Automatic annotation (TrEMBL):
Gene Ontology molecular function, alphabetical: endonuclease activity
UniProt entry keywords in alphabetical sequence: Chloroplast, Plastid
Protein known as: Homing endonuclease LAGLIDADG domain-containing protein
Domain Homing endonuclease LAGLIDADG: 13-82
Residues of the signal peptide: none
Tree of life domain: Eukaryota
Pfam families: LAGLIDADG_3
Amino acid sequence: MIKNDKKLNLTEIEVAWLSGLFEGEGSFGIDNRSAKRYINSVAPAAPFIKIAMTDEDVIAKVAKLLNKSHLSPTRKTVTNKTVFICHIGDRQTLLYLLPRMLPYMGKRRQKQIQMSIFLLNKWKIWKNKRN
């Protein structure tokens, strides 16, 4: 697994490329499991983005640009193709990436990204209060 200790410095073209790819093939979500799993959990929900496709070269490029790893679960498509996945859930990467992607996205994705940014900022406040 690649450690995310290097700062991202994407070009505008790279951000636009990622945005187009995630607009069409990605998924944007909110992970609420912590609050449901632990009675005393006060951590805010955690946004994430994920992309899965059978084109390993494309997923590898996403992973490289975002300093992430990619994986291939054991499941195959109905046509027996291997699926490759890149999951981005760390808040620092999302805080960097999502505001830059926002202007390139359609209205539905913009709403999802705005909610994610809201939750990320809520997390920053929560984290600062705990320090």
